[in-house]
Amino acid sequence: MAADFDVVNLFVIAAATLAIPIVAFGASFLLWPSVLIRVYHWYWRRTLGLQVRYADCGGYRFCYSCRGKPGMRPSILLLHNFSAHKDTWLTVVKYLPKHLHILCVDMPGHEGTTRTNKDDYSIQGQARRIRQFVEAIRLNRKPFHLVGASMGGSVAGVYAACYPLDICSMTLICPDGIKHLSETKFDNHLQDLQHNQYTLSIPLIPTTPEEMQDMLKLCSHVRFKIPQQILQGLVDVRLPHNEFYEEVFMELISERSRYALQEHLHLIFTPLQIIWGKKDQVVDVSGAAIIEEHIPGCRVDLLENCGHSVVMEKPRQTAKLILEFIIAKQNTTKKSS
Predict the structure, then answer these.
(1) What's the structural domain count of the chain?
(2) What values do phi and psi take at 171, rounded to 5?
(3) Which of 122, 84, 77 is nearest to 263 (CA)?
(4) Which domain holds residue 21?
(5) What sections of 196-285 are H helices per DSSP?
(6) Where does the record place the AB hydrolase-1 domain (predicted)?
(7) Given 87, 280, 284, 301, which residue is catalytic?
């Protein structure tokens, strides 16, 4: 009888042990989906071997994740898009070789990087801040490969124009800052905003799950089925930062930043790769031809069935194309030396 009682206790303990994480997951999913999203990012950083670190320079702190050490291949610095963060690159990092030295930094004012009211969030201002980060961690002891997506692409292009000796090659993914030939769905939204003196909601700054779904549809050609609770979690994560995002957004569409990349194209001599989704509804793919016209010899990879969110929609292909380009340019340099 005592043995039977012990077996029953064992089953009760086992059931309780299994129930705790299940209940915790269920509660997080229903009540605190934003917590679940943060745990998800933490889990994938850990799984992919990325460590979160901080770099201080003159009272300004950068937050970044990194993996590996400088080696035979150039280090890779990744700059994310507007209102995103360093974990945006997790999907791409997953498909990059583990021996590569990879760094994903939170852009100025975003996520864990310092945010100040006096900071300059123009494209040129952000490029100067990223240079501070590069110098703080001494990344430019050896030329590195720079990658930027959308806003990060515009910043990367200006960086290459201003600090050409820092980098050996560069990849721009659907970069903003180009006077593209055709209007996009986002351009139409922008015109509506201007006509209404910016009293309408900004498509890239959602405040409800429905607006989040609309933003995902705008940015992605691939249709992702995302549960309502996860959409709510994505909104909850962003809501505390929306006032800041509005400030940056107004700076990005200002005269000073709107076409910053195009205005610096004549100063870019770094080997360049362009990756663009053919179905981009935010920044028209015609921008690739404009860049190619200004920088002959740059490599252009246009992706089928892909929108603006290339990193999310085609992570494996993106990683493959970036790696191919780095290796090709490195081999060309060796042959010419």
Answers:
(1) 2
(2) -120, 125
(3) 122
(4) 1-31
(5) 209-219, 228-238, 242-252, 260-264
(6) 74-315
(7) 280
